[in-house]
Amino acid sequence: MAAFDLTVNERAVRVTVANEETSLLAVLRDTLGLVGTRFGCGLEQCGCCMVLIDGRPEKSCGKQLSTVAGKAITTIEGLGTPDRPHPLQQAFLDEQAGQCGYCLSGILVSAKALLDRNSAPSRAEIAEALDDNICRCGSHVRILRAVEHAARLLREGAAR
Fold this sequence. Notes:
Helix content is 33%, strand content 16%. It is built from 5 helices and 5 strands, in the order ββαβββαααα. A 5-stranded mixed sheet has the order 2-1-5-3-4, with helices on both faces. Strand 1 and strand 2 form a beta hairpin. Helix 2 packs across helix 5. It is globular, with a radius of gyration of 15 Å. The longest helix is centred in the last third of the chain and has 16 residues. By secondary structure, the protein is an alpha+beta fold.
């Protein structure tokens, strides 16, 4: 058994696992009950499992828990709530950017990292930032439009 301290969605947690090689995704979903982060391919290829680790988008399915000890993890649950959605979440609703929605949690956290460092990204910069996220439904144009919309909302002073 091994115990690790980390911060998840601005809350300090101690996680005990039987195997140090347990993935961050498994801990988020199975131990902490944060099921918004999805298991997609399990091979770090699709981006469904994307979370922010110290503000940087990273895939959690292949990330060993031991490598994130002491770090700040943000999942989709850490962005907003149904009553107070993050401007990105609101923009995705406004633009009807999701179809099945399976990929969206990974896309949203990747987009958040982009907008945290660049308040007015070009469409090409948005596409590049989301390059590690696969949407199989073909909602790409609506997704790009939603990130542009969210950037405008944030520049106009919407609460993060």
